[in-house]
Each structure stands twice: as C-alpha cells, then as structure tokens.
C-alpha cells in the first residue's frame, strides 16, 4: 500500500459507470408497474436521496410500506440489471485509473450496489486490477454508505486524512465526513449540480477535474 499522496475511494454507479440513463429507464419501468407517473432526469436528480425509501417518500408524499418497498426495490433492480450490461465507463475513467495506478498511487472502490453483482461487472470492464480493494453492499439493507465506509477504510488500513471520496451523491460526502475524510462530487450521476452544491464540498463536471481537485485538498 502506497504511503504517499491521496488514496481515492471511488463510487461506482453514476461515477465510474455512466449508468444514469439505465437508472432513469429502470426507474420509469418500475414506476409503470406500480402505477406511478414517470419521472424526468432533471426531477430525478433534484429529488434523489439515500436511503432510497426517502426518495420514494419525496415522490409519493409518504414513506412506502415494507411490502411496497419490497415490490419497488425488486422491480427497479430487475429492470436496472437488464440495462446495466450495456452501460459504459464514464469518459476518461479507464485512463485516469490506469495512470494513477502506474504512478504508484492507490485507489479503491466502494459501492452500494450488491457485492455479488458489482464485482463481476467491474471485472468485465477490465479495471478491477486498478483497485487495491473493491466492496459492494453485502446485504439487503437500505442504509447509506457511512457504515460501509468505516469498514472499508478499516480493511484498507489507510488513515482518513489521506482519503478523498469521489462520488456523485450527497451520501458519498456524508460517508467521507463520517470517517474524517474529504470528498469531491461529480455532476454526471444522480444529483443536480444545485443539490450537490448544497453539501458544501467541491463539485466538478468531469472525473479528470475530480482527481485534480482531490490531489489539491489539504
């Protein structure tokens, strides 16, 4: 494990994987099954939050019941994984990951996607070897990323002051703050720029810029 320079903890969905189109398609396909109105990308980005049941509360005006949530979550994931295979990496992602590894700097992957689905997909994109560790969600919980970040950094044995989290959601910044790390948020995924700006961390429009800003953070 390198001991100099920033260690980057990358998010997957909406950050390294350019899957926002698949997410919107799956969301609206699931909504159609459930009798809910379809949603635009702009509205999705303005309302999206973690934990995801709170997102549905914003849409429905109430939290879904446990039974409703089970149906909603199952429908979304069925439609999403049908689309995920056709999603590519975000522009520049593969090159940035390779260059960082080749320069001796370290990076890891932490996602709320199911671990058993995440790892094969990352490998199919040919970038698994760029990371010193990859962790997806190990269970069916709807919790945010904070608890997972604690376990991820403990396994890495990297001090939080060396860590910068790069993600596309407010929850990524919350998880970073939870462990005492820094964060940079990317606008190409689940949130609007305005909603990311409210979080109070740097907001960027490309992954190249995210890496550059991450390296400059004190």
TrEMBL record:
It comes from the Bacteria. It holds the Pfam family Hydrolase_like. InterPro entries: HAD-like_hydrolase_sf, HAD-like_sf, HAD_sf, PGP-like_dom2. This is HAD hydrolase-like protein. It comes from Streptomyces tanashiensis. The lineage of its organism: Bacteria, Bacillati, Actinomycetota, Actinomycetes, Kitasatosporales.
